[in-house]
Amino acid sequence: MTTQEVPPRSVPKPVFTDAEAGARQFPDSDARRFNYFTPAKRKQSHYEDVTVEVQPDPRHYLSQGWLYGFSDGRGGYPLDWTVLKAWGSDRPEPERYPGSGGKGYDWPALGWHEFRDPNEEWELTLYRYNANVVRQLNQNVDAARAAKAFEQWNPNWVRFVEQHVGAWMHVDHGLGLYLYANANRRAPTNMHNNAISVNSMHRIRAAQDLALYNLTLSEEIENFDGTAHITTWNSDPSWQGVREVAEQLTAIDDWCEAIFAANVVFEPLVGELFRSHLVQQAAPRNGDFVTPTLVGAEEYDFAERDLRYTIPLFQLLSDDREFSDRNKEIMDGWLSTWASRAITAARTLQPLWSQPDSKPPRFEDGLDAAKNRFAGIVGDLHLDVPKELAHHGEPVQVRQHRLQYVRIHADE
Q: Are 192 and 168 in contact (CB under 8 A)?
C-alpha cells in the first residue's frame, strides 16, 4: 500500500502596508489621556473616558455633520426636544466646507456638555450594581422561605400586599419603559443618556422584583391571589389618582419635563410617601420583614442614585449663564402643574393607611414629611416652592440638600 503525497498548501503571506489601524504615528500617539474634552476636575476620570463625547456633536468635532437624520431633515439629537436651553444652544452649527478643517466650537461647545453624573454611571456600573441588588434580594427571599417567615404575616396584611404592594409594579413598569427610556433617547449628550437609561433600568428592575416576589408569595402563602394587583390598579378608587398621574407622565413629549416631573415632583410626593411612609412603616408591625427589603431597594435607587443625578442636571439649567431666568420660569410652571396633580394623587391613597391591622404613622404626618422633602429639593434648584404645598396656610419648611454640581471652568 502506497501513501499518496499531499502537496503543500499555498497560503497567502501577510503583507503590511502601514495602512492598518494604529500604524500611523501622530503627535499624540503616545498620549495617556484624551484631549478632545476638558475634565470636570483636575484629572480625567474613567467615567469621563468612556462617556464624554461618545455621542458626538457637530458643534464640536463631528465635521461631516450628523451621520443620520429624520424625515423632516433634522439630524441626530435636536436640541428642541426640550424647551429648556443651555448656553450656546442658539449658536448655529459651524459651517464646514472643503479646506475648512472641520473645526467646531471649542470644548465645551454648549452648556449641555457641562453635565456630569455624580454616580458616574456607565455600562459596567449598571450591570454590577443591579446584579448585586438582585442577588441580595434573592437571598433575603430564600432565607425567609427557609425560615417560614411568611407564616407570621397577619391575614389582613396578606391581602394588603397582594393588592396594594403589587399595584406599585404598574407604576415602576410604566415609568421605566415609557418615560425614562424615552427621555434617554431624546437627551442631547451621552452623559445624560447614561444617567437616564440607568434610571430606567432601576424602575424596570424594581417592577420585575415585585413581579417575581408576587409569584413567590403565590407559592408560599395559601390562597394568595397573585392577580389581585391588576384589579386594584384598574378599578380600586384609592389608586385611580396615582394611575391617572402615571399615565399623564408617560405622555410627556419634552424629555426634560418628563425627568423633572417624575424625579423632582412625583417621586418625593407620591413614591416616597407610599414606600417609606406606608409600606416600610406598616410591614414590620404586621409580621412582615421581607417586603421592606424589596421596597427599600427601590427607595435607595431613587434617594441615593436617581435623585443624585437629577439635582445637578437641573441646577446647571437654573443657574445657566445665558438662559437662567427663562429656564426658571419654565420649571416653576412645571412645578405648579405637576405638584398639584401629585398632591391630589397622594391624597387618594389615604384610605390605604387604615387597612393594615397594625397601623403605620398618620397619613398627614407622612404627607407633611414628603412635602418638606420636596420643598428641600426645590430649594436646591433655586426655584419657588409652589403654593399647592401649603398646609392649612402654613409655610413648608425648606431643608437644603448637599448635592451640588461642578462647573467645568473655575471662572464660570
A: no
The set of cell numbers assigned to 307 is 435623585
Which tens digits make up the pLDDT trace of 174-186?
Answer: 999 999 999 999 9
In this predicted model, what pLDDT tens digit does every residue of 150-172 receive, in sequence order? Answer: 999 999 999 999 999 999 999 99
pTM > 0.90: no
CATH code where residue 283 lies: 1.10.620.20
Point out which residues pair with 394 in neighbouring strands.
Answer: 391
Domain around 160: 123-389
Residue 41 Cα distances to 121, 176, 242, angstroms: 17, 32, 41
* Percent of the chain that is helix, strand, coil (3-state, to 5): 55, 0, 40
Q: Is residue 299 part of a domain?
A: yes
Residue owning grid cell 452623559: 191
List pLDDT tens digits, range 218-245.
999 999 999 999 999 999 999 999 999 9
- Sorted by sequence, the CB contacts under 8 Å of residue 397 that are 6+ apart come out as 372, 375
Backbone dihedral region for residue 77 (phi beyond 0: left; psi -120 to 50: alpha; all else: beta): beta
